[in-house]
Structure to design on (144 residues):
């Protein structure tokens, strides 16, 4: 069970850092796809923000302790932060493909641990995440 809770906290850290990165890109995107990507990135980070809350409250429901500080997230995440600079569409799309792949890997890993622990709610939650990230990856890959 400890390994499952630790993996959920890694996922929570990845989601939090990815949220900040998506909003950074929403601010810094430039080029002829600005209008499309500016609003798409907002849609993405709103969705990730909901997942942050869902995962943290799920950790609590399992009697775990969700990480809740930026310092913890930066020490735990596998996602690389964005920089404070303008960014072009192609770089944004390529980075999102990499980061959604990381989230998909998190979700698959957690699902495996959940099934070993017969933790069915976690397993179901990860089904939704796996479906979400798989669809995102398919769509993002059509842009390059
Ligand atoms: Fe905005």
């Amino acid at each position: 069970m400890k390994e499952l809770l630790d993996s959920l906290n890694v996922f929570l850290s990845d989601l939090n850092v990815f949220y900040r990165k998506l909003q950074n890109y929403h601010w810094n995107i430039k080029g002829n796809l600005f209008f499309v990507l500016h609003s798409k990135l907002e849609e993405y980070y709103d969705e990730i923000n909901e997942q942050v809350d869902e995962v943290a409250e799920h950790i609590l429901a399992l009697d775990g302790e969700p990480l809740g500080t930026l310092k913890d997230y930066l020490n735990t995440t596998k996602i690389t932060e964005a920089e404070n600079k303008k960014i072009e569409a192609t770089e944004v799309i390529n980075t999102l493909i990499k980061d959604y792949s990381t989230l998909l890997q998190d979700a698959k890993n957690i699902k495996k641990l959940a099934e070993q622990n017969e933790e069915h709610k976690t397993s179901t939650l990860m089904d939704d995440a796996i479906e979400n990230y798989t669809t995102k990856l398919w769509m993002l890959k059509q842009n390059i």
About this structure: Residues 2-141 form a domain with the Ferritin fold (CATH 1.20.1260.10).
